[in-house]
Amino acid sequence: MKRFLARHSPLIILAGLCLAMAVVSQDFRRLNNLQDVGGRTCVTGIIAVGELLVILTAGIDLSVGSVAALAGVIAAKAMTDWGLPVPVGVLLGILAGLFCGTINGLLVTKGRIPPFIATLGTMMAARGAALLIAKSCPIVVLVKSFQWLGGSKVLEGGGTAWWVPVLLAVSITIFFSVMLTFTGFGRSIYALGGNLQAARLSGIPVDRVRTGAYALCGMLVGVGGVVLASRTSIGNPTGAEMMELDAIAGCVIGGASLMGGEGGAAAALAGALIIMVLRNFCNLMNFDTNWQQVYVGVLVVLLVFYDNYRKRKAGLLKDL
Predict the structure, then answer these.
(1) Hey, which residues does 139 pair with through a beta bridge?
(2) Which of 44, 225, 262, 315 could potentially form a cystine with 71 if both were Cys, beta carbons 3.0 to 4.6 Å apart?
(3) Domain CATH number, residue 269
């Protein structure tokens, strides 16, 4: 029972949180509010799954917010100024994320630059590139078919196609859950986070796996950035700010260890959903928006403290 509760604690916390908020607030349990929460969670959830892949290798990616903005700007630019079809624009946005993720991986593995510094540089470079491409102005996308991906497409009977990004986020989560659990590449990612030296001695191509993790993270960030642009119908070069905080917080709240080797895709999505549910509840209760960042920050610190405490008790972590 203890193992079951520990493994599924994010889902249990999410269920208890939703139940409590539904009792306290009548507006929270309205269908349109739940649909809005689900739609907003999709972008953060997709990016959190990508961030998880890097965290599992004991790395970190601080560039996800800037790369998401860059992907959205490139997709919007392709469909408006360049006159390319919607699928091509979406693909270019995703490829931009993949390119940035690959650069991060190469800087960490071949350049031997610490992940914090490498992705910090990419964060500034990607944000600058987005501002240059968009000429510091948001790019409005008037192509109606593009709105399907973000769920903002208005249907004939009223309402929106909110379920499209939800289905996309769930599909991505299921795919990467299976990949991490049942494939050699997924097990290698866990092995790197557990013990890098042992993974190298056991024959795992460490640099290739780490580069692949960062590349996949970038690809998922590109997907999230394009979904965000589709949701708002704007390629915003200043958008997705502080998204890296939400992505990392979602992973940690979902049980991922910042020291690598622990976590799951479904738990990361659940962690992102917990953050969005808390923020939605704060908005419904008219709490100061500045306090929302305080709540998330305190929650992340407490969970990391608990993770370190648990590992010290188990002898897996020693003080210097």
Answers:
(1) 235
(2) 225
(3) 1.10.3470
